[in-house]
Every structure is written in structure tokens, then in C-alpha cells.
């Protein structure tokens, strides 16, 4: 136990002496009273490129993160859930807006012009929200995560090795100063020659060791600095992936908006020509064409439709619906085109056409 304590104390003293020596050397260099070992121009160029890479990668990651999630409070919540290793499905603003529009449309009535239009616009907003969510996920996976991993991994290791190199450089220059001072004392006539020779020999030995450690650390650091080139190549691939994800996102959004605009334009023409909501079947060609209100052929009456949203029946004449289920529907001659007759097994009742996607 005593031996362990003595060793620990000696190690502490040695580390303290080394730290003090480095501090003295650093101070003398700043004051201009001591020389500093300079790295070669190629090494300095590599180091400058590494510093630029670290600076701009950190800034780009931060800016991209702000674009993908501009809400600071949401960022904090996502960070906490990530640390707790819990997943959460956050609705985007588009999705929330779409749901409110759909709920409003249901409240006003899917059979009215305003209610039906609110539902269609709300559906488009939800599509935009899902596209945005996919873009955020894709950009985070293919762009932000690799860059952040580089900063927290390779770059952090490189910075650590550069700090070690600087410590080795201070040790080397401190040894050079000790040897220089010992040799200057040798020229003094009143100094003991044997003592000075021992001092010079010890300083030379320490200098050789310090030089060896410095050279080895410089080589290690240089290899890591040269590896920044491969990091740039990887970041370029990530940047291409980011642009592709962004292009896909904007293409989807443009398509959704174009489809919605066409439907809104058709609605405007229909309302202008009729002045009523009775001809609303002309506003959405997909419903009127699939339903075929004027068809009387028995084989054309019964069709399949997929339910887009949950629907609770308001009375016994209506049929409750569950999203994504497939039912059989029929549009009888003279029936309101905003409603169809739905069948699920032995259950039968009216269902809103706006809630359906015709399959045949």
C-alpha cells in the first residue's frame, strides 16, 4: 500500500513538472524569449484545411438542422426522446392543418360545397405533410447523421492528436532550451566541468527522446490530416443524397398542389355555371365518373371502394366506416351524388362519397 502511494505521488510530481515545463515554454514563446519548432508548410496547409472542414461542417449541420426542424422546443423534445431511446411520431404543421380542415369539412357537411372542398384541401395538406416528414427523415439519415458522425468521431480524434502533438512540441522545445542553457554554462570558467558535462549529457538524452516522440506524433497527426480528403469525398456523396431528397420532396409538393389546383379550378367552373351545389358531382370527375349516376346496367351498379377516413354514422340510415377498409358501393338513379349506398357483409347504409376512393 505504501509502495503504491509512493509511486502515485512520484507520478503526480512528474506530471506536474511536465505541465509546469510546458507552461514556461509556452509563456517564453509568447514573450519572444524562446524559439519555437515550426512545422513544414505542407503540414500547416493540411492543418488549415482540417480547421476549415471542422468550422464549415459544424455550421452546415447546424443550419440544415434548423431548416429541417425550425422549432427550438421541438428540437429539445426530440433530443430528450432520442436520449430516452423512445420513438415518437410527431405530426407536421401541414398534417395538423389538413386534419383541422377535414374535421371542419365534416362539421359543415361533406355534402356541401364548402365542406367537401375543405376535405379535399385538407387531404392535400396531409399529403404535403407526409412528403415533408419523409424529406426530413431522408435528409437526416443521408446528410446530417454522416456529417455529425464525422465531427464526433474522426474530427474529434484528429483534434485530440493535434493537442498531443502540441504538447510534444512544447516538450521538445523545452529540452532544446535546457541543452542550450547547459552549453552556455560550459563556457563559464567558474563552473565545475564534470557537473556541466553531466547536465549536457542528460539534456541531450532528453532531447533525443523528445525529438523521437515528437516525430512519431507528427507522423500520426499528418496521416489523420491527410484523411480529411476522403472525408470530403464522403461529404460530397452525402450532399448529392441531400439534393436528391430535396428535389423529390419539391417535385411531390408541386404535383400535389397542381392536382389540387385542377380540382379547385373545376369546382370554380361548376359553381359558376350552375350557381348551386346540386351539380357538385361535376366538380370531382373521379367521383362522378366512377359512380356513373346515369348508368342503369346491373353489372355497373355495384363497385368496390377504399375508405379514406373513419366516419361515424349519424343515424341508422348511414353506415360507419373505418379508414383503409374496402366496401361495395352503389349509386342509384336519382340519388344525391354526394352519397352512395355502402355494403359491408350484411350491413348496409349511406356513406359520403368524399370519404371514398373508387377501385373499379
From TrEMBL:
Alphabetical list of InterPro entries matching this protein: AH/BAR_dom_sf, BAR_dom, Endophilin_SH3RF, SH3-like_dom_sf, SH3_domain
UniProt entry tagged with the keyword Thylakoid: no
Keywords of the record: Coiled coil, SH3 domain
Chain ranges of the BAR domain: 28-273
The organism's place on the tree of life at top rank: Eukaryota
Annotated signal peptide: none
Coiled coil: 148-220
Domain SH3: 300-360
SMART domains tied to this protein: BAR (SM00721), SH3 (SM00326)
Pfam families: BAR, SH3_9
Protein family according to the UniProt entry: Belongs to the endophilin family.
Identification of the protein by name: Endophilin-B2-like isoform X1
Organism, as annotated: Limulus polyphemus
